[in-house]
Structure formats: C-alpha cells, structure tokens
Amino acid sequence: MTTLAKHTRPAPPQPGTPSPRGGLRRLGDLKIALFFIAPAMIGFIFFYVVPTIRGVYLSFTEYNILGDPEWVGMDNYTAIAKDPLFWNSLAVTGQYVFLNIVLQTALALGLALLMHKVAKSTLIRGALLLPWMMSNVIAALLWFWMLDYQIGVVNQFIEWAGLPRVAFFGSEEWAIPTQALINTWRHMGYTALLIFAGMQAIPGHVYEVAKLDGASPFQTFRKITLPLLRPVLVMVLVVTVIGSFQVFDTVSVTTGGGPVNATRVIQYYIYQRAFTESDFGYGSAIAVILFLILALVAFIQMKFLKGNESDLD
Amino acid sequence: MKKTLGAVAVAAAVALSLSACGSGSSAESAKGEINYWLWDANQLPAYQQCADDFTKANPDIKVKITQRGWDDYWSTLTNGFVGGTAPDVFTNHLGRYGELAENKQLLPIDDAVQKDNIDLTAYNEGLADLWVGQDGKRYGLPKDWDTIGLFYNKAMLASAGISEDQMKNLTWNPEDGGSYEKVIAHLTVDKAGKRGDEAGFDKNNVAVYGLGLNGGGDSSGQTEWSYLTNTTGWSHTDKNPWGTHYNYDDAKFQSSIDWFAGLVTKGYMPKLETTVGASMADTFAAGKSAINAHGSWMTGQYTGYQGVEVGIAPTPVGPEGKRASMFNGLADSIWAGTKKKDASIKWVEYLASADCQDVVAAKAVVFPALKTSSDKAAAAFAAKGVDVTAFTEHVKNKTTFLYPITDNTAKVKGIMEPAMDAVVSGKAPASSLTQMNEQVNALFK
C-alpha cells in the first residue's frame, strides 16, 4: 500500500501521517470491492462453508435425516477404519484415478501438440471438445448400451472379429477400466484445450533458438515444451485428479457399485450409506476423510511439482 | 418433535370424532386437493380412473396423482418428509415402511378402519396384517399383491418335446435339481445345436439358456431363488414380520444356492456378468432363454412381445412336497405430516374399496388385494388370452410366504447384494454367506 501511495502521489504533504483523503478512498474501495465480491461470497458461504461445517459436525453423529442427529463422538471414524468396504472403495477409486489420469493426461498432451502444430482449423479443434459437451450421464448411458454384452454394437464387432464377447460392465476385471476409459474419452478434449492454451503462452522465440541450435522435435518437446508447460500441467493435474476422485455419475447409472464390489468407488459408497441406507453420519464421516485425502493430494502436487513457479522468468 | 406429533394426533382424533358427529357434512379438512404418488407407470391409467370416480362422489376433494420411477421414488419421498412437501397419500412397499413407521412419518389409521367398519377379511389372506407395525398400529390398507411364476417360450418347449403339462408339474430339490433341472438342461442349446443334456454339449458357446438370470437376488431373492430356497423349509428370518435374525447361514439355504449357482457352471444359466445391462425379460424376448422365473407384475410385458408365444407355469414343487412363492403386497399409506387428514383417509379407504380395485382389476395389470377383485383381474387376464392360474394358485393353495419384513432392510440389502453376486458369479462358495449372515445379524444388536 505504501509503495503504491508513493508512486501515485509524488509529493506527500507530511510523510508518515496518513492523509484523511487516502483513508476515505480506501474505505470506499472496500465497499465497492465487497459489492463485487458479494455474489460469489454469499454463494461460497451458503453452498460451501456452511454445508462443509455441518458435514463435519454430522460426521460425529448418528443421523438418519428423519430424526435428530445424535452425538456419537469418534464412533463413525473407528467403524470406518474397520470397514472392509471403505478400504475396498479406496482401492477401487485409486485404480480408477490412476488409469483415468495417466491415460487422459497422456492423450490430452498428444492432442494439444496436434492442435498446436498440425490441426489449425477451428472446426477440428472444436470437434475435440464435443464429448466434453455431453452430460456425464448421457455419455455413460451411451457407452453402457454400446458396450452391452447381449445387444451392444461393440460386442457385435468383437464377435465378427472372431473373438469372445466381453462383459465390459459385468465382469469385475473390466468394470473399472471400462469406466475409466469412458471418462477419459469424455474429458481428454477439454484437458487438451487447457494444455493447448498453456502451449500458446510459450514464446515462439524459444523454439526458434532451439531450431537454430539443431534440436530434434523430440528434444524440443522434452527440453522446452514440457518444462515451460509445467505450471499449466500442474494446474490441470490438480483439477483432473480431484475431479477423478469424485467419480460418481458414471458408476451410478451403469454398474451401481457392482459386480460384487468392483466399482463401489468412494463417492458411490458415501451415497449408498447416506441416501440408500439412511446413515448420514457415517456417510458424512467418509466424505470428511475424502476431503482430507484430496486436500493432501493437492498439497503434495503443488509442493513437489512447484505449480506456483514458472521457468519463463 | 414428539410434542407436536402428540398435538397432531389429538387434533386428528378430534377431527375424526367431529366428522363422525356431523353426519353428512364433511369436516373442514375433508376438502381441497390431496397429492397421491405411485411408481408404476403401467398402473397410472387405472388409478387416474379411480381418482376421477372419487372426485365425482366427493366433489370437495380433488386428487392429484404423480407417478415417479422406482429409482427416484424413495429418495424424493424422503426429501419430501424432511422438507414438508411429501404427498398426503403414497404407495408404500413392505421393504420400506418399517423404517418410515419407526421414524413417525406414517399416520396410523386404526381409528378410521374401526369407525368405517372396513372388512379386513375381504382382502386376500395375510395382506392386511402385513401393514401392522411393530408398535401394533396399522399403517396402510392393501392395494395389490404379487407372486412368482415361470414364464416359458412355448415354441422352444415344443421343439424340445416337453409338454406344457410336464412344465406345470415340475419338482425340484437342491441335490440333483429334480425334473426342473432336467427340463432346464434339455431346453439349453449350444451354438452347434446340441442340447444341455446331450454328450458333446459346449457349455462355453450357448445359444439358448434353459433358465434366464436377473441378478444375484440380494437379500430377498424375490424372483431369483426364493421360490426354491423356501420349499426346503428354510425362511429368511426367525419370524415374519418383524424378525430380528436372518438365516443365511442355514445349510438348507446354502445348498440351494450352491445348486442355483451351479446352473451357471453347467452352462444352463447365463453368467452373472452378462446380465448387467439389457433386462432379463428383453433377453427372453430375444430368444436367449427358454424359461424365466419372474413376478406376476411382469405378465403384461412378457405376453406383450410380438412374435413370442409365452406360457406361465407354477414354480416347481420342492423337497417338502409343496410349491413356494414370495407374497409381496403394496399398500397406500398416509404421511403423518398431511394437512388434509380426513380427505386422505377417505381416499385411502376408496383405494382399498371394491369400487377402485375393480377398476384396477379390469385393466389386467396387477392383482388387486380384495379377493373379489383378484378374481375379476384373473378373468380380465383370461379375456386377454393369458392364463394366470400359476400366480393365483399359490394364494389359493396357501403356498405363499411373506416378503421378509424387518428393520434395517436397506442395510441388509447393502451387505447381501455384493455377497450374493459373488456366490452366483462363482467367485465365492455359498458357505461364504455364513460370515455375511453374522454381519447382517450384528445390525440387530
């Protein structure tokens, strides 16, 4: 504030004493600022802060939504620690996130390179975004029918190729990879767009210099594009990993947690405990644990990938 | 909470007694519009007809019917209870009402039933008693019932040389499956045209399965296996309704389930993994299974497929010399928070009366709860060319057992669904259910 004041006002009447006019203006700024922040702030408080605090409170209670919450202390958490389905849901979600993120990021990076270097037409670039514009539920249902064991078109092709039909959603081995692939297909265009934007921010002269020095395309990509893209990549990873951990709709409209427990991902398990089995305290406790896990994952990503620093300066 | 409920109850009692005194003139609350919910779209036309007739007889009361699919029905209803926007009257399910009654969301209707002299013996046996809660209060009047039968493809039966009489007199036991397994095996055909009981049958390349599969059956096995397991003398719980101990650890149950899962291994029933997606009825219509065990409420769908001749046989006779079918009944209940109690009671009583149930019967969709209306429904089915004795026989011969009504049904289902899936898909033996049973019974401690 003081440095700013020095720049704007070349000759302060008496250094050290705040001018009444400056103080007033600061207050005036605050009012205007509050006015502009208010819509977002109100939404944030009522739809995020209050529910989060209430969720944390409910996680220490036994609550079936029709009665009143009853304080039970750490009971929910100790029960979760011994709940094999909770640990199963963590493992299943982990498997999903791993497959989804690795594939999605790799493919998106490739697509972004193509958009950057080859496909300059807006039409093609726009077409890459099409799957992302579809609602998650629609995309899931579409694939659910196309991959159906009995009547799905994909299995028809597989059979024509002389291979045995695959129970994409029905078998325990395939259920999670199938859903990870569907969501990869849906999200990679959008992820590619974000990375592509990052690539466009890399100044062209860096590439010119590399070319002059005789760097191969692969060297350019590894030594220039990737390092300079890092802040964007970290942002993309943080957002997509958090989103990936929260997979729910695809599971809900297709396998519903099954076969056996193969797709009982953490969000679905929360929903099942809270809304199906009316155990809102238990569900809230798992949600709090998921919140902590995601906070930790985001922190580690930011810390070790140095997402808030850029190599461009 | 308790206080207000008490006050509401007193007010309701007063309102009831007032309406009783003021002969003819209806009390204030017996006016206006009441909201009514149901989940089965097939039954909507029948109940709309009932609502119109009801309003004609009671011009002060309008009924607004909302139909919601089963998947959204219960969560929307729960939200309504919490938010105060629940319907005045709604179709209730045996698997759900225990919890709702316990949480004081349902209005007991004992006084009205007594005052209006509702004849509870006019309903098919046991149906009215199902709706008396653990506290001894009545929470609904029965509207319909269902049992299980075997839908079979007549053309496939004929080409296998099995007569319809044979089909109607099947026997079953958990050791060798009886004539039921023989018929299933013979109806199974592999891609080379070999039948399931012939030498050289390729169980990995089956074109038509003898028996269709709907799923693992979770806690009740309503259409999947309960028509078999309960012929052995086994029952789901120690007593019904309001049992507090489940019996999935029983040897009789586990051997029956082992036999059931064994059908998959033998290639007579599709693998569980292949049943995710397309419905069992549609796969039957596509000619991929010869027999499907399913509920009476599916009759319209099975007999409605173009080009498939369908017959309905009763479920097989078990080791104790009797058939068995789960007997499930729905009822109409009143939300405790309704502001139009008298009107709601009138509507529920109308729904449970012959006036409305005969209308439902005439549409030949489900079997109404009243004995006389049930007969009319059977006649309406017969007029459409569908013989439904396979379903009505169970009721007539008293070979039904009740849908297991207990507390914690949603949690029991949560434990048993993956457990049964694991057994039916061959990932675990039926003996693994002993441990699951311990988890289930721990819910009641």
Task: Name the features.
heterodimer, A: 313 residues, mainly alpha, MetI-like fold, two-stranded antiparallel ribbon, 14 helices, 2 strands, 72% helix, disordered N terminus, B: 445 residues, alpha/beta, D-Maltodextrin-Binding Protein, domain 2, 2 domains, seven-stranded mixed β-sheet, five-stranded mixed β-sheet, 18 helices
Strand content of chain B: 5-15%
Assign the CATH superfamily of the largest domain in chain B: Periplasmic binding protein-like II
CATH topology of chain A: MetI-like fold
The CATH topology of the largest domain in chain B corresponds to: D-Maltodextrin-Binding Protein, domain 2
Rg calc of chain A: 26 Å
Structural class of chain B: alpha/beta
Oligomer: heterodimer
CATH class of chain A: Mainly Alpha
Characterize the main sheet of chain A: 2 strands, antiparallel
Under CATH, the homologous superfamily of chain A reads: MetI-like
Please indicate the count of domains of chain B: 2
- Give the overall shape of chain B, derived from the CA principal axes: globular
Average pLDDT confidence of chain B is 89
The tally of beta strands of chain A, per DSSP, is 2
Q: Biggest interface and its residues per chain?
A: A-B, 33 and 31 residues
CATH architecture of chain A: Orthogonal Bundle
Taken together, the total number of domains of chain A comes to: 1
Helical percentage of chain B: 40-55%
Order of helices and strands of chain A: HHEEHHHHHHHHHHHH
Distance between termini of chain B?
26 Å
The main sheet of chain B comes to: 7 strands, mixed
